[in-house]
Design a protein that fits this description.
The structure holds two protein chains of two kinds. Chain A is an all-alpha fold. Chain A starts with 7 loop residues before the first helix and ends in an 11-residue tail after the last helix. Chain A is about 70% helix and about 0% strand. Chain B is an all-alpha fold. Chain B has one domain. In chain B, about 75% of the residues lie in helices and about 0% in strands. The chains are: A mainly alpha, B mainly alpha.
């Protein structure tokens, strides 16, 4: 398909992002403090109450959590610092324009649309988190998914609709004031996590620091999954910490942020987000979860329901409840705003407020599905694996293609509407990784084991351990297809492009 | 806002964070009860939000 054809969809998309089409000017660059503050605030959200809890319920050990999360978060920081930031400071363009240059506008539209959908889903999970706290204060129990409550009660749905509506209306009215409020909330939240966890320790039997490790192994991260949960181990902790933001680092989503960085080393500022939000906060929510389950069992409750609201109330009282509400709210709002922006592409004559409201409706519906929180770790893993390949192509296109003698930004140079190598690499890598996982997980895919070569049939893939295979498959498919593409139709030589 | 006002507000904010987190360690040491801890956390929250809103600047990076 070539570009002589007019495409209103593509024109609309370009117009939407027109304001950041040019690389960031040198006088608009920011220093360390800005990035440290941004990462510290952005990566401590309502969902941290869920993910730390899920690790406890899936039966990891204390070693798995403390060492596995440290390794996974370190890999995430290195991915930001060594893969994302260096490309960002050299190109100084948004992810939108970088994908457009190598994949063509149609795949960029697909990327934007699907990204908007997943953002609605994530915003819904954040509303769900806030709703567990609000409903607790008005005496409405949250659905216990583990106990088979797959549909919330009507009063709980009404609370979720109320919370979601407030968030949607605020997103429609404007983002700036809330962005400022989120910045005020951010430094306070880690202290609530820490205080809630430390104050919960005596109820588990920890009365001094020396007793912590023994109690951690016996009562918190016991290595025994709760009934009905798949067992997780060390590599699941590594994989979850590395994967949960892969769309931002290896997937290059944060080139949009780091294009404002003075130097690539500022990618290391992500360590503040990872080790406060995805290390300390996950560990703290795990401790609060264990304390809640322990207290409920002691009170004779057969199936405790460790929702974010419940565990925060036990650990930190009403300050914890406020923290859960705000953690969900302040992160759901910008997420919904970005989803609205991405959806606007496909709705030409709609006003921004209407698009954001539609995204808000999807968000509220998602918030009313308890399974979303119960499987949040799997959802973020799918989300990461699906969006990562396009970032991998940007990385390979930037660093490897000139060394292979291949033209960079081929789709842009040839004015292609779709880069077929990018399509093959993107969907191929996700499809292969999904099928390798699904053949052992879903009954409808088990037939694959009879048809695959034995080394693949015997390979037991896990969703969290697919980062490297997915990246390698994606760049291999993309590079091989680009070799064929550029051999069949060489890019016209333009000075500087092949250097 | 003058520098002095800003410094006073910041001092109250940081005291609020201290009041939020330190009582938890006192619970661990058996010095204060859990109820006192949760009340102090509420106080810390009020101190933080009542002051930090005025001195934390907004920026537009990445919007």
């Amino acid at each position: 398909m070539s570009a002589g054809e007019k495409s209103t969809l593509v024109e609309r998309l370009d117009a939407l992002y027109e304001y950041d089409r040019e690389p960031v000017a040198a006088d608009k660059l920011y220093g360390w403090r800005t990035f440290i503050a941004m990462f510290s605030s952005e990566h401590i959200a309502g969902t941290e109450f869920v993910l730390g809890t899920l690790l406890v319920l899936h039966g990891v050990t204390a070693f798995d959590v403390f060492v596995g999360l440290a390794v996974g978060n370190l890999l995430a920081v290195l991915s930001w610092a060594l893969m994302c930031a260096p490309v960002a400071v050299r190109e100084r363009l948004t992810i939108y324009w970088q994908i457009r240059k190598i994949a063509g506008p149609y795949l960029t539209v697909v990327y934007s649309g699907l990204f908007a959908l997943i953002l609605c889903l994530l915003a819904g999970s954040m509303v769900n988190v806030s709703t567990t706290a609000v409903s607790l204060t008005v005496g409405i129990p949250s659905p216990n998914y583990a106990a088979g409550e797959t549909v919330p009660s009507v009063p709980w749905i009404l609370v979720a609709v109320g919370v979601g509506s407030v968030i949607a209306v605020l997103a429609v009215l404007g983002f700036e004031r809330l962005a400022h409020f989120a910045k005020v909330v951010a430094p306070w939240m880690p202290f609530v996590f820490l205080a809630g966890a430390v104050a919960s320790l005596p109820s588990l039997g920890v009365t001094s620091v020396g007793k912590f490790w023994a109690v951690a192994n016996e009562k918190i991260w016991t290595g025994v999954p709760q009934e009905g949960q798949i067992p997780y181990g060390f590599w699941h902790c590594v994989g979850l910490a590395w994967l949960c933001n892969i769309a931002q680092h290896m997937g290059m989503g944060d080139v949009t942020i780091f294009r404002y960085a003075r130097k690539w080393q500022m990618g290391f500022s992500s360590a503040f987000g990872m080790f406060i939000g995805h290390y300390m906060a996950w560990i703290c929510s795990g401790i609060m979860c264990a304390a809640f389950v322990h207290a409920q069992r002691a009170a004779g409750v057969a199936e405790p329901n460790p929702t974010p609201g419940n565990i925060a109330m036990l650990g930190a009282g009403y300050a914890g409840i406020v923290c859960v509400v705000l953690a969900g709210w302040t992160t759901a709002n910008p997420t919904l705003y970005r989803a609205g922006l991405a959806f606007q592409v496909a709705t030409p004559n709609w006003r921004r407020w209407a698009v954001t409201l539609v995204a808000g409706v999807i968000m509220v519906i998602t918030a009313c599905i308890p399974a979303v929180l119960a499987y949040l770790d799997r959802i973020v893993a799918y989300y990461g694996l699906f969006f990562m390949p396009l970032g991998a192509f940007i990385f390979i296109d930037f660093w490897v293609f000139p060394r292979l003698g291949l033209a960079r930004n081929y789709a842009e140079r040839k004015r292609l509407m779709v880069s077929w190598p990018a399509a093959v690499g993107w969907f191929g890598s996700f499809g292969i990784c999904f099928l390798l996982y699904a053949k052992d997980q879903y009954a409808s895919f088990t037939w694959l084991n009879d048809r695959l070569p034995s080394f693949l049939a015997n390979y037991r893939a896990d969703l969290f351990l697919q980062v490297l295979p997915a990246w390698i498959i994606a760049v291999t498919l993309y590079t091989l297809c680009c070799l064929v593409q550029q051999k069949l139709s060489p890019a016209s030589a333009v000075k500087g492009d092949l250097a | 806002m003058t520098q002095q006002t800003k410094r006073i507000l910041q001092t109250i904010s940081f005291l609020g964070l201290a009041v939020t987190v330190l009582p938890a360690f006192l619970v661990l040491g058996g010095v204060v009860s859990r109820q006192t801890h949760t009340h102090l956390m509420l106080l810390g929250m009020v101190m933080w939000f009542g002051t930090a809103t005025f001195w934390i600047r907004r920026d537009h990076l990445g919007d």
